[in-house]
């Protein structure tokens, strides 16, 4: 099975590797049609949820004292994947027209009271970022480099809503570890918060094509600034009259020049009673980048992480696989050939009484031929359910990675990856039911209805229950990450009306099949397992074996974790596909090797051993996530810890079931093969 899987995916892996190396430059399926604009056409800007990597709790943009459209914010249609990702895209009050330069345009005026001031200040402290969208492009952030002081762009995660500075004359804050992004009492006493109330909206455009006279947006970046605005002649605006939108501001540069950091003399502090005036500039830049390639700089983060890093990771993984392959070949092939030849010779050749006594004293895997295919005595139904669930997760994940590697799941179509994973997982329910039923029938189980039902609700039920629990908590936090009730019903309907029936359908065909036959007959009484040394102890092998597959995927896992929890783009799925295949191959080889040694030690309880040995990769993933958590510099909010470790538990569990299934399937065919080659009396 493993050989067929690798052979069928070889061509796709090599093709995807080429695409992944160029970060989708060579082949790009955008998912949307290009939009062209004529001069002075309106270019709509939308606002998405505010996010913070330090809290992991997205918030609605208009929950803070920001400017709203004159007729109120309007929701933009979203798919299920966007809701699950916490996106909430809405209209904005910013008016932008193609090639029309805007200079210090007033948007609105907001009067801060005690509650709004404290709320805004807390969100600045928590490190929240705005996420704006123009023509389906997310806003990059323009800031100053700490090393050189020059402007640089960051293409993921949006731009901050403000910044923190020590209060004049106050003692420097003594923040403990983990309090950098926590709004505690000391923060309000020793630090001031400032809001970015002016933005320079930089838009890159590509000139018209001969066949299309319109202009196309190919880049979008926002440079935020904090400015304490004042009107000329000490004019006081009530925030509603039309005169205030046209009155000149003393704090803006002369007409015809855009705002720069050198024009800022005083920052806009966040305090009760402060009047915040929001303004913006629009700056247009002609760009040679074509529309089809505009996402390249986002996906590569302007080549911040070169492709060579991923190739080094792949090379490291391949070396691990080669070492294991050589080890498996040298140990198994040589020993098995000798063992099989010796066993068969003993059967074919008449033995003397002395030779028969010597044979009785021998040890080896042949001696357990009457017990090796005995059904597991511990939780056989749970074993079948776990293997079936692993098959479903593995197939859905593998197909999702292939679709992403060839470009069908583009970042331009927000939520497409999440939606595809959900749909594919639901549709793969029949594979789960088929495998679990075949195994359960092989174990002579009689409660097949219960086995099928548990297969249908085991892993999906844990995921849905935890998701529903977090969804309720996020709703209390007024987070945009809380999925609407209608979408929760859609998820429940996908599970109950599609996935569950498909599991039962697969189980029906599985039970209709003949029972899996084995090359040896199982005895009535189980053979006693002799004591073993420390290194052959099954618990030691199960606890340590997962380290090897984890090491093979470690480097690429770092980039996936960064993308998942730190709002970074990840689109090198060609590398992911290769690492996935290497992970499967490594799990198979490690498990087969350790299973062989257990059989030689006359341990016939290899069913759960093969599953947990390979599945322990999931335990190492969860342990690594505990170590990696410090990268987030998380706030002291309890919900942050719950979300991170809760979802990492689900991901680790999925890896445990997938790799465990791979280990068991590999050992299953291995054990059947070696025992079918010997002649038993």
Question: Main traits of this protein?
Answer:
4-stranded antiparallel sheet; 19 helices; 11% strand
Question: How would you explain this protein's 3D organization?
Answer:
- Mean pLDDT is 83; it is low at 1-31 and 356-361.
- Helix 9 (380-405) crosses helix 10 (416-427), helix 14 runs parallel beside helix 17 (607-615) and helix 15 (547-565) crosses helix 18.
- The chain is α+β, with helices and mostly antiparallel strands and 681 residues long.
- The protein is 48% helix and 11% strand.
- Strands 3-14-12-13-7-8 form a six-stranded mixed beta sheet. It has a four-stranded antiparallel beta sheet with strand order 2-1-5-6, with no helix packed on it. A two-stranded antiparallel ribbon has the order 4-9.
- The protein has 19 helices and 14 strands.
- The longest helix has 42 residues, at 307-348.
SSE layout:
Elements: H1 2-21, E1 45-47, H2 80-84, E2 90-91, E3 102-111, H3 114-125, E4 129-130, E5 132-134, E6 137-138, E7 140-144, E8 151-154, E9 159-160, E10 162-166, H4 185-190, E11 191-195, E12 198-206, E13 216-225, H5 243-246, E14 275-286, H6 296-300, H7 307-348, H8 353-360, H9 380-405, H10 416-427, H11 429-442, H12 448-476, H13 485-512, H14 538-544, H15 547-565, H16 573-600, H17 607-615, H18 617-628, H19 638-676
Parallel strand pairs: 7-13, 12-14
Antiparallel strand pairs: 1-2, 1-5, 3-14, 4-9, 5-6, 7-8, 10-11, 12-13
Helix pairs in contact: 1-16, 7-15, 7-16, 9-10, 9-11, 9-12, 9-16, 9-19, 10-13, 11-12, 11-13, 12-13, 12-19, 14-17, 15-16, 15-18, 16-17, 16-19, 17-19, 18-19
């Amino acid at each position: 099975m493993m050989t067929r899987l690798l052979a069928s995916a070889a061509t796709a892996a090599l093709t995807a590797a080429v695409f992944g190396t160029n970060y989708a430059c060579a082949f790009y399926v955008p998912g949307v049609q290009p939009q062209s604009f004529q001069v002075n056409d309106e270019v709509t800007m939308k606002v998405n949820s505010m996010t913070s990597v330090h809290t992991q709790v997205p918030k609605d943009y208009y929950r803070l004292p920001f400017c709203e459209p004159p007729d109120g914010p309007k929701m933009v249609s979203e798919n299920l994947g966007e809701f699950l990702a916490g996106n909430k895209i809405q209209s904005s009050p910013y008016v932008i027209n193609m090639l029309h330069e805007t200079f210090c345009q007033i948007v609105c005026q907001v009067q801060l009271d005690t509650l709004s001031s404290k709320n805004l200040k807390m969100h600045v402290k928590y490190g929240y970022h705005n996420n704006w969208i123009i023509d389906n492009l997310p806003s990059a952030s323009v800031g100053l480099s700490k090393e050189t002081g020059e402007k640089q762009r960051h293409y993921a995660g949006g731009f901050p809503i403000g910044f923190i500075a020590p209060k004049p004359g106050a003692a420097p804050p003594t923040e403990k570890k983990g309090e950098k992004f926590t709004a505690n009492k000391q923060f309000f006493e020793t630090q001031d918060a400032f809001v970015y109330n002016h933005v320079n909206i930089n838009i890159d455009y590509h000139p018209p094509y001969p066949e299309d006279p319109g202009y196309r947006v190919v880049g979008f970046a926002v440079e935020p600034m904090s400015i304490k605005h004042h009107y000329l002649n000490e004019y006081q605006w009530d925030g509603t009259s039309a005169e205030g939108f046209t009155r000149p501001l003393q704090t803006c540069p002369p007409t015809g020049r855009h705002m720069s950091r050198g024009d800022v003399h005083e920052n806009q502090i966040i305090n009760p009673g402060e009047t915040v005036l929001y303004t913006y500039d629009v700056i247009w830049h002609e760009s040679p980048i074509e529309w089809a390639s505009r996402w390249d700089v986002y996906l590569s983060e302007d080549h911040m992480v070169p492709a060579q890093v991923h190739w080094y990771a792949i090379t490291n993984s391949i070396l691990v696989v080669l070492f294991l392959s050589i080890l498996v070949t040298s140990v198994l092939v040589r020993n098995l050939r000798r063992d099989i030849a010796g066993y068969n010779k003993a059967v074919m050749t008449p033995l003397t009484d002395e030779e028969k006594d010597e044979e009785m004293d021998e040890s080896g895997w042949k001696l357990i031929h009457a017990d090796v295919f005995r059904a597991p005595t511990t939780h056989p139904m749970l074993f079948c359910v776990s293997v079936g669930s692993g098959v479903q997760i593995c197939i859905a994940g593998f197909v999702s990675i292939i679709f992403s590697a060839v470009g069908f799941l583009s970042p331009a179509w927000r939520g497409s990856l999440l939606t595809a994973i959900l749909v594919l997982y639901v549709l793969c329910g029949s594979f789960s039911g088929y495998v679990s039923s075949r195994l359960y029938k092989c174990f002579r189980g009689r409660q097949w209805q219960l086995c099928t039902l548990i297969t249908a609700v085991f892993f999906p039920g844990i995921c849905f229950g935890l998701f529903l629990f977090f969804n309720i908590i996020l709703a209390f936090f007024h987070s945009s990450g809380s999925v609407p009730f209608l979408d929760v019903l859609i998820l429940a309907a996908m599970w109950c009306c599609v996935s569950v029936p498909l599991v039962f359908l697969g189980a029906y065909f599985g039970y209709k099949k003949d029972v899996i036959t084995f090359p040896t007959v199982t005895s009535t009484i189980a053979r006693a397992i002799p004591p073993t040394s420390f290194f052959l102890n099954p618990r030691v092998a199960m606890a340590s074996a997962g380290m090897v597959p984890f090491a093979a995927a470690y480097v690429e896992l770092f980039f996936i974790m960064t993308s998942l929890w730190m709002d970074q783009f990840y689109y090198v799925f060609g590398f992911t596909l290769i690492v996935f295949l290497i992970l499967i191959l490594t799990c198979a080889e490690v498990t087969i090797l350790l299973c062989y040694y257990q059989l030689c030690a006359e341990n016939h309880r290899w069913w759960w051993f093969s599953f947990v040995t390979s599945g322990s990769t999931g335990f190492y993933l969860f342990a690594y996530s505990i170590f990696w958590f410090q990268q987030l510099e998380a706030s002291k909010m309890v919900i942050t810890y719950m979300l991170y470790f809760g979802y990492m538990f689900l991901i680790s569990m999925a890896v445990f079931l997938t790799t465990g299934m791979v280990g068991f399937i590999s050992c299953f065919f291995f054990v059947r093969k070696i025992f079918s080659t010997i002649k038993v009396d």
